[in-house]
Amino acid sequence: MTDATGPIVAADGRPLKASLSRALRREKLRAFLLILPLLAFVVISFIAPIFDMLFRSVQDDITSRTLPQTVVALNDWDYTGDARPSEQTYEALYFDMFMAAEAKKHTALGSRLNYETTGISSLFRQTGRGLDDVGEDVIEAMEDASAALDDSAFWAGLFLTDDRSAGDKAASARAWASTVSDQALSLPADVYLANAAEAALPNAARQYAAFAMFTHTVDEDVPAEEDPWEAVWIALAQDLTAGELAYDGPEAAELRAVQAAVAGPMADFTFTDAFLAQDDDWGEASVWGTIQTFSSPYTAGYFLTAIDLELTPDGAQAVEDDVAIYITLFWRTLWMSMTITFSCILLGYPIAWLMANLPDRSANLIMILVLLPFWTSLLVRTSAWKVLLQQQGVINDTLVWIGLVGDGSRLALINNATGTIIAMTHILLPFMILPLYSVMKGIPPSYLRAAKSLGATNWTAFWRVYFPQSVPGIGAGSILVFILSIGYYITPEIVGGTKGVFISNRIAYHISSSLNWGLAAALGTILLVVVLALYWAYDRIVGIDNVKLGG
Amino acid sequence: MKKSIILGTSAIVAVAGIAYADGHMASDMTLVSWGGAYQASQQNAYVAPYIANNEGVTAVWDESSSEAVAKLRAMNEAGNVTWDVVDVVAADAIRLCDEGLALEIDHDEMLADGDDGSSASDDFGDLIVSDCFIPQIVYSTTFGYRDDLVGDTPPTSVCDVYDLEAYPGMRSLERNPIANLEWALICDGVDIADVYDVLETEEGQDRAFAKMDTIKDNVIWWSAGADTPQLLADGEIVMGSTYNGRLFSLIEEQDQPVSMLWDWQMFDLDGWIIPAGLSPEREARALDFVRFATDTQRLADQAKYISYGPARQSSAPLVSTHETLGIEMAPHMPTDPANSVNTFLFNYEWWADYRDDLDAKFQAWLAQ
Amino acid sequence: MGLPPYATTGQRIWYYSFRVICGLILFFLIAPIITIIPLSFNAQDFFTFTPEMLRLDPAGYSLKHYRAFFGTEGSPGTGLIVGALLGLAVFAALYFWRGSRNVLPIIVGAALGLVIGKMWGIEGTEWMTPLKNSLKIAPVATLISVSLGTLAAIGLSQAHVPFRRAIMAILISPMIVPLIISAAGMYFFYSRIGLQGTYWGVVLSHAALGVPFVIITVTATLVGFDKSLTRAAANLGANPVTTFFRVQMPLILPGVISGGLFAFITSFDEVVVVLFVGSVGQQTLPWQMFTGLREQISPTILAAATVLISISVVLLVTLELLRRRSERLRGMTPG
Question: HEC string of chain B?
Fold first, then answer.
């Protein structure tokens, strides 16, 4: 081959190099197309849920969504000072809470904040109930001043118009009300918020718009036929006492009558006093501090709780000893999983060795004995262990009958760590035996014979020659068993009592009983990180392709 | 190869066949309850007669009441509520109502009047603890003990649970602070009227836990209603707390050597809620069912199958004998005067606040 | 590994004590199973060996839990007859068309007819409905994981796959991630996208859980696969589809079948994920067992378990016999 001939060409005249790389590209593409459906499937049905869970562990926008104006007003407040939040904050709280209570969102926020500060749950619930009574005197004075206010049509005439040029869709009120109620609210199709009223009575117009949208979208009623909320009345009273009334519509006369009447009651009215009358706790810095601390849409709070810290207005701090539990549970999960793994090695090794060294026919019989429990429902095996292990159970009965233990001193084998270890060792044993067996099957028996013929004792031959070659099997089995046991839930739940439960049981508890999903997600994320680290180690040491199941 | 094709094809045909067998569903109503004897009593007293009166309606049970709040939340988030009528304890009903997950009920309008002519709200009285809650039964959490393991002097007081000398052996208590902390304080000499005031303080909580420390090593903690009856039947425990209906079934129906200890039983309520956001037809059907299932006669009928007290005052005189055993049911009701000398009612409001905190403490205490 | 005749006493003792130890471990493995079987004939409603049972008094035993498990619904007899007749028709067709004397269609038809007849049209029964649900979910989930998994395993076995390790890690992850985490994630995510509480939600989640088993077993068979066979087929003019079905598939079939069995059992025995993702319409057998254990302990669960164990034993023994037969046919002498 000389340089003069140029690049080597394939049969079709293209350069061979290009042709080969094209073939390679096509092969890659084909392989990729074969993998793609499954990859997409697993990503959508499995990986996406996992990421969703990770997201939930930091997402915490319930405070900022339910009390948006309050959170903004609270920005300037300093927790460390003794001062209460400003009157503007209480005012914002009143309107946020009123809207939230109508949409029934305030108690969910109360439950959320109650995880952090005991008592907020009922504070929010009771305040939500009492909101209608806030400013009673003001509202009574208004009713006395003008009977027209009791007519829902009066309000609709004042604030709503069907003339597009004289009104708008109240975008800012809509954004606020939709955020608080967590629903897409809107005014009816041909109804607009009157510009004139909005300019003269900004607060009341905003509240009335929120009321009208909620009535239309959620209650599916006609706003003009419904009596407006108390919050609208209070907002109107605020507007009327703010200064001269710059409104000359048909309702102006009535409004002026009301304006004269509310001046007195409004002078005595503050939102701060109204909330303190509802509950003294509204004057507590701890309540406001909690709201402020959890007002950002993302939080590290759940993760801190998951490692026995708590997020306080002063920063992260260790929780008191009498509620610290998660670190204990994580350690327990780890050491019990290690114990289980070790028991599996201890029990699995002889069986795998026996199977690898027996003739196929007998080995397969043993294999059936190994696989049979593997194929039996996990729940059934666990409940069978319950029957076997309890104090009046089969094992204790047998021991008493033999005379090994006295009738009065039966062993406590269940509802503790022992129970969990025994039952889980049994359940996970096949996961140890199968990889061990497949490794041992590949160790030629001649090595052992050679070692012996060279003068090694049985023990030396085993320990120096056979055992090192079976270590990959032990490694594979151990990591598999360890990873599986660390996330176990059902078996510890049934036989573990209180000392034999894992972190998974706590996760399940927070999902289905305490409903603290954020904390469940944070605990799950930490567990997931541990497992993935092990998985990575496994891949490094054994190679994920080398996992074998049976045979 | 050919064989595997035959097998494969038959498998697909089989799946298709079974899937088809499921295809024709009538107007289904999904009722959610607790399973076991309780659900059976509802089936017998409410659902069977209702279906007999309403051609074409079928009922499917979902035994998910213990996860009702979590599941309804998820369904609501998914916008696909598959349940029609849900049996929940009062505390869950309050929670669901607070979160807007349950339909608000106008009791007088939507429920039947009592047989004695009283309006529904009068007939149920104080048991309507939430606007969404339709009361059904009064039950209690109380103790049962093994006759053959307590010697000659059977326990008479709840404080005997704390007496390891007179009654050695294991006990079972619920893995949950509710009722346990109250009992601990009562047995530590706190008056029932002060229990919650004491429990609000740090010292009071420590005091309750200290009392429970005295028997901690002798307690099996249960989480499912079936646990204590099974443990009693096995002779694993001397005494244990559970729901009174479970003990009735154990004693009278299963004939086990067990007796009731009614002292300081904790009353609780159980009833229906209807999920919010059902389609109008389903909502109407659910309301129709609930109206039927909570009338005076139906509530009294349920007591034929299980020893829970009907929630209507007007049902009490109608409580008769057990359906199969023929024994009088009234003396087995938790509300019977002989049984309710010392009782207290689950304090929903208080626990709503303190549950998170005390639960964390309780779990940490258990793990120590 | 027999004991040589010249073994010393020490070796003898070690040999026998090793056997005893292994026997004990094997006993440990099957102890729960042999406990379950007698308890399922308990005349009482508790998980307890009653004194009557221990005295072997017939009064202590009863079949009532089996009656409760099977119930009286459905029409297995009709199903059996219809299935057998259909099988007979297939048999006749094959006989006249190809002269096959294989009676398998009749047996399979009768067995399937029995099961379908038992399941047909029942609704809301305590045990048969969950069993039916399990039978509706597990095969479909298996089908999805086996078909997608086999293709992907073949793709992964090609020489030049970019990001092979990462892809493999993603595909195996459903087996590695703790079930409670998968369950929680799916619960939250499927709620958002409206799959929570639906049939397809459960099927998809179970299919995802079964994928790793298929990938692992099929990849393992493909490691020993001779690539020149597909090239030879291509050389001889077969298109890729034909090559796949006629050359590659029969050779990797054992791996596919065992992966499928694992995927099936994963779905059939899975309780954590279905508890969260499913609703009553998808209540599977393990779910029913779980609620049974929690809410009302009844030995009917043990009767169900005994039935399932018997099926597993029959399956395992059949597989073993088939394996021996195929080895004999291939001229290999087992053992």
Answer: CHHHHHHHHHHHHHHHHHHHHCCCCCEEEEEECCCHHHHHHHHHHHHHHHHHHCCCEEEEEECCHHHHHHHHHHHHHHCCCCCCEEEEEHHHHHHHHHCCCECCCCHHHHCCCCCCCCCHHHHHHHHCCCCCCEEEEEEEEEEEEEHHHCCCCCCCCHHHHHCCCCCCCCEEEECCCCCHHHHHHHHCCCCHHHHHHHHCCHHHHHHHHHHHHCCHHHEEEECCCCHHHHHHHHCCCCEEEEEHHHHHHHHHHCCCCEEEEEEEEEEEEEEEECECCCCHHHHHHHHHHHHHHCCHHHHHHHCCCCCCEECCHHHHHHCCECCCCCCECHHHCCCCCCCCCCEEECCHHHHHHHHHHHHHHHHHHHHC
Question: Would you call C188 and A381 a contact, using CB atoms and an 8 Å cutoff?
Answer: no
The residue type of C334 is P
- C126-298 maps to which CATH number? 1.10.3720.10
C-contacting chains (≥3 CB pairs under 8 Å): A, B
Domain ranges of chain C: 74-121, 126-298
Compute how many other C-beta atoms are within 10 angstroms of the C-beta atom of residue A493.
23
Pull the structure tokens for residue A548.
């074998």
Of the three residues A41, A56, A71, the one that is the final residue of a domain is A56
**What average pLDDT score do residues A320-337 get?**
91
What residue has token string 């493999």?
C168
Examine the domain organization and report whether A101 and A220 are in the same domain.
no
Whole-angstrom distance, CA of residue A498 vs CA of residue B219:
10
Q: Domain for residue B151, yes or no? A: yes
- Do B34 and B114 fall into the same domain? yes
CATH of residue B327's domain is 3.40.190.10
B134 pLDDT above the threshold of 60: yes
A242, A383: one domain: no
**Residue A261 falls within a domain, yes or no?**
yes
- Same domain for B122 and B61, yes or no, is yes
Q: Name the one residue in this structure whose structure tokens are 């049985």.
A: A458
What are the CA-CA distances from residue C148 to residues A35, C156, C208 (Å)?
A: 8, 12, 10
Stretch among A91-100, B95-104, B356-365, C316-325 having the lowest mean pLDDT? C316-325
Q: What global pTM score does this model have?
A: 0.87
CB contact under 8 A, B367 and A328: yes
**Is-contact B93 B102, C-beta < 8 A?**
yes
Q: Is residue B247 part of a domain?
A: yes
Distance (Å) from the alpha carbon of B10 to chain C's nearest alpha carbon: 8
Q: For residue B9, what pLDDT band results from cuts at 50, 70 and 90?
A: low
Q: Strands B239-243 and B171-174, how do they pair?
A: parallel
Domain that holds residue B145: 141-267+342-367
Domain that holds residue A67: 63-131+277-293
Cβ pairs A/C, distance under 8 A = 263
Share of chain B above pLDDT 70, in %: 93
- Among chain C residues, the shortest Cα distance to A57 is held by C185
Q: Are residues A343 and A258 in the same domain?
A: no
ipTM: 0.84
Q: How far apart are CA C84 and CA C113, in angstroms?
A: 7
Q: What residues have CB less than 8 Å from A267, skipping those under 6 apart?
A: none
Instruction: At B27, give phi and psi (nearest 5°).
Output: -75, 100
- Residue of C191, C193, C247, C282 to mutate for B, most B C-beta atoms under 10 A: C191
| C226, C163 contact by CB (below 8 A) | no
